[in-house]
Amino acid sequence: MRGRDLEVVAAWRDAASVAGPAWMAEPRRMAWTALATLGFPGPGDEAWRFTPGRSLSSPALPVAGGGALPAAARWWSAIDADRIVFVNGRVDRAASTVDLAWGARSSAPADGAFGAVVDAAAGGFDALNLATASDGVWTVRASGSRPLLLVHRTAADGVLVPVRHRIVVPPGASAEVYAVWEGAGTALVSGVTEVEVGDGAQLRWTELQDEPGGVRHVHTWGARVGRDATVTGIFVQIGARVARTDVRASLGAGSTLRLHGLTLGRDEQHLDVHTTVHHDGPHATSRQHFKTILDGVARGVFTGRVVVPPGAVGTDASQSAPALLLSPRAVANARPQLEIRCDDLKATHGAAIGAVDPEAAFFLQARGLDALQARALLTLAFAREVVSVLPEALQGEVEGRVADWLGAEVG
Amino acid sequence: MLELVDLHARVEGKEILRGLTLSVGAGEVHAIMGPNGSGKSTLSKVIAGHPGYVVTGGDIRFRGQSLLGVAPEERARAGIFLSFQYPVEIPGVTTSYFLKAALNAVRKARGLPPLDAMDFLKAAKAKMRLVGMPDALLHRALNEGFSGGEKKRNEIFQMAMLEPALAVLDETDSGLDVDALRTIAEGITALRSPERSMIVITHYQRLLDHLVPDFTHLLVGGRIVKSGGKELALEVEQRGYGWVEAELSP
User: Fold this and answer.
1) Are the Cβ atoms of A366 and B75 closer than 8 angstroms?
2) What is the ipTM of this complex?
3) pTM (predicted TM-score)
4) Within a domain: residue A61?
5) In this complex, which of A359, A365, A380 lies closest to B73 when CB atoms are compared?
6) Measuring CA to CA, how many Å separate B17 from each of B13, B59, B123, B241?
7) Residues 6 or more apart from B17 whose CB is under 8 A from it?
């Protein structure tokens, strides 16, 4: 690592060191060591080609203290789920309905460890998260558990807001998790979610990232998917100035992974989704469908890496990442990266990038809609394919936000 | 109602309409027949205001006002309806959602209050019966996965809802089986009124068996070369277009 990078890491260590529970001292020490070895992603890092790591890693910031939830903006309180609210990275017990946070635990949970799914040595931001996170959920979703809603609310300026979750779905169990990221201010939000899905288990994860426009947001969501398990991940991102969501999964034999994404970017937003799917076991299926809509001078990035090792026979992997550009100055980058070292498989990918279809717009105008209404309707149509797979609990809310974003009326 | 005066139009740099003149009075049904490439679809797109079709000469006047430079939605709101030869499919938007938005845009322009969901549904169900369109199609994505017949029924249903003063039907009969053709033609016939004019563009005469025109025009080489009554359509059916072209050559 070059001297300048070492200085950046040292500055972070000075600014962001935290104490936290004693059982976290050793993982933290290892994380700082990993960060000092790795550094933050630099210009030569292929996985960060379109999102400069430096836009997120500097300047070094102190870690936020907790806070209490303002009474307003509780749109999610109607969602039928167990709820945990984090304010500036710390649990707000008064606003939560269950106690699943690990920050106040006096001893390390016995059922696993941080880093088991998302290794701190895998990347600089993952290491920074482990080194600084003081709270998050640590939960085993046994059969019959209610849906779980994680609310991440940021209300701070010029600080790092780390949060780290570990969610285990035991073999044969089925779990539903909703995650919402929102708030106010200009923090750097750092999230890591580690998910272990046991053999034959099922998980649906639905995420809505609608952070305020001054926030920078980095989230790594990693899943280890057991034999014959099924995981669905839905990632909707509308907010933040710069956002990077890494979705990583390793698939056991016969398992199924479905990933859906909807990214809406405008003004100068820069929204990056990077997926990495390892088909470790044979006969696993992965389906990725990420849609991006960009206006203004926004940039959307999708990178979909699929790794199929020699023994993964019967792999079935597909990926599509269409983007709709509403402005001539918006930019979409879509990169499929298939690393295939196995002959017996089916893999497809596609990424069409274009503007609103002028023939469809003419059709709508010839029926009386004006040009803006026609464009909004066609854009809504483009988004609906993803909106339609959302769980009912979030569908109306997300559809409403998409329509607001477009300035359209939802009927 | 509609006056086309020495109309010239280009698409992709090629002149397709070359001095087309036609006058359509209130309540009249005009059939326009012509061989492939004669300019039939261009005529429909030019009347509706497609931005890719450029009028290079002449004028289009609707109720005395020139339509040149008028946006397609303004034409629609003024009472012009184009039934597309190939209606677009829009996955993700239901017919009811789209049509309610379109109808309320048109109503607003006519100084009428918007219809709410209940009133819209009631009106829609009545009009769907007119073209034998099953109610379920209203709640499916617009034309997505519809058969050719379902798409055309949907077009005429939308026309019935929007209540235009001038309807241009571009090859509404293409891709229909005999039964669908009859139902749709009967639906269109039911929409005839002394206030509503229609231009029925077709390659074949069979639609005109059910929907009897007041006038028939033959469009060849971008101009109306022959006009007559309904019997002209029969003549074309029996003799093809060759004789017209032969008659025209010196």
Assistant:
1) yes
2) 0.95
3) 0.89
4) yes
5) A365
6) 12, 12, 39, 18
7) B7, B8, B9, B39, B42, B43, B46, B222, B223
| Greatest C-alpha distance within chain A | 68
Domain residue limits at A374: 358-411
E strands of A34-127, at which residues? 82-87, 90-91
Residue B66 and residue B3 in contact, taking contact as beta carbons nearer than 8 Å: no
Looking at A251, A273, A288, the residue that finishes a domain is A251
In 3D space, the residue among A136, A87, A99 whose CA is nearest the CA of residue A114 turns out to be A136
pLDDT at A2: 61
Look at residue A286 and tell me if it is in a domain. Answer: no
Closest of A197, A208, A298 to residue A262, by C-alpha: A208
Cα–Cα separations (whole angstroms), residue A276 to A130, A259, A303: 20, 11, 8
Domain-embedded: residue A384: yes
Cα–Cα distance, A238 to B139 (Å, whole number)? 28
| CA-to-CA dists, residue A279 to A194, A286, A317, A341, angstroms | 18, 8, 9, 11
- Half-sphere exposure (CA, 13 Å, Cβ side) for A89? 26
The per-residue pLDDT for range A323-338, each reduced to its tens digit, is: 999 999 999 999 999 9
In B71-165, DSSP assigns E strands to 80-83, 90-94, 141-142
Cα B58 to Cα B222: distance, rounded to the nearest angstrom:
13
Instruction: Dump pLDDT digits (tens) for A89-133.
Output: 999 999 999 999 999 999 999 889 999 999 988 899 999 999 999
CB-CB neighbors (< 8 A) of B96 in chain A: 411
Whether A243 and A362 share a structural domain: no
B158 at A interface, C-beta within 8 A: yes
Q: Which of A96, A126, A129, A168 is nearest to A24 (CA)?
A: A129
CB A330 within 8 A of CB A324: no
Domain boundary among A225, A251, A277: A251
User: In angstroms, what separates the C-alpha of A372 from chain B's closest C-alpha?
Assistant: 11
**CB–CB of A385/A291 below 8 Å?**
yes
Model pLDDT, residue A410:
46
* Residue indicated by tokens 């073209």: B131
In a domain, A269, yes or no: no
